[in-house]
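Continuing from the previous page of notes. For each protein in this section, the sequence appears first, followed by its structure tokens. Read the first protein now.
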Amino acid sequence: MVGFMEKEQFSQEDRESLMGWMERRGGTRQQAEIAVRQLMKKATQLADEESIAPIEAMGRLLSKIAQAEKIMEENGIPIDHDRQ
């Protein structure tokens, strides 16, 4: 279950969009739910720390994920989205 504070900061549409993104990357529904909860919690913390909107904080986190994957890909490190 999503914590109250995180749930309040993000819409159901945002949550479902993130869940779909995680599932498309090879995660199960359960793994996607856990990852989304963790991302929402971290984004809420980051937003509080930096006095920015939670959705902006989420964007920053997702950009970091994309950047890390790009670096891995450029260095020939396989990204196993199907790993479970």
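Done with the first. The second protein uses the same format. Note its length before scrolling.
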Amino acid sequence: MKKIIGTGLTFVAFTLMISSCGESIDGAALAQEVCDCTTAANGLPADDPNRSAEQDKCGELQRVNWDKVSGDTEQESAFNDQFPCGF
């Protein structure tokens, strides 16, 4: 009986682990993340020594997030529809 329960629990854990690997991608949410970053970076005072570095981080985030949607035309469109931010 213990072997059956142990095997069943292992199967359930393995199934949950596999299903979590297939995360769906939300192009609009990824683009919003970039917009939020850009808004925050651009909101820093022009003389803030960290402003340029923060803007660079947002540019890198945009590249990384684009790579996540690239090849999925539906999510590419959802991503692109968010730009320019706030419109």
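What the second structure shows: The two ends are 61 Å apart (CA to CA). The first helix runs from residue 2 to 21. We return to this in next week's lecture.
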